[in-house]
Amino acid sequence: VFQDYALFPHMSVGSNVGFGLRMQGVDGATRAAKAREALALVGLAAAFDKKPHQLSGGQRQRVALARALVIEPAVLLLDEPLGALDLKLRRQMQDELKAIQKRVGTAFIHVTHDQEEAMALADHCVVMNDGRIEDEGPPERVYARPATRFSATFMGESTILAGTVTEAKDRTSTVATPVGPVSLPGALPVGSTVALAIRPEHLVLGEARGGVRLGTAEVSDVVFQGSFKRMLAVSVEDPSLHFIAKLPATAAVQPGDRVAISCDTDQIILLTD
Length: 273
Fold this sequence. Notes:
The chain has two domains: 111 residues, P-loop containing nucleotide triphosphate hydrolases (Rossmann fold); 113 residues, CATH 2.40.50.140. Helix content is 27%, strand content 34%. The chain has eight helices and 14 strands.
């Protein structure tokens, strides 16, 4: 299934869906019956005699999906199939794709650069970088506990603190960072270089109970995004360090403010790569 649908403009929707069966030598009556079944599966039973230009983008994408499913493949490869759709339609198609996959049982390999789309659709998520697998597993684990720095920054945003292990005892390691020492569970070799990743939703303004203070930062930008505010801030102690935080939509913060930044220690992701 292609990003740009790749439907034949001179053929009807029914003929487009039945094209693969035609190439397999299936007779016309059987082709038409199976094409109607496939279109009904994607909710377009009434579009059989229409031409592709008479359909919306989301409908054309569903026709392309029906054309791929009608030949009953063992595996279906979707190459950024929702990339050409607007946000609302893309989310609607995500729900429909997942429902269709559950009904037909065919394995879907869905290629996308949209991280939210990957996490919304995948049962198993694979993060690739230059043709090499960086991380793989259930999307919840890949997001919450990424295996590498690339995975931590690619699958959602993260604030990254470079650090060096200065002490390890009682199954706890102390890491020296630009904003001060941070103690984390786990014994690591003293002197080893690590990175600490913190997701935006885990940064809080002020003091965090049972957490660690990450210093003071000056707010550089605040973007209202409906259910939350996305804040960018620069560390006062280390201007090269930039914090990215998701705050409640009602948070009273604006560019130029100086705020204390903290984080629950349990939410810090330790990266050793």
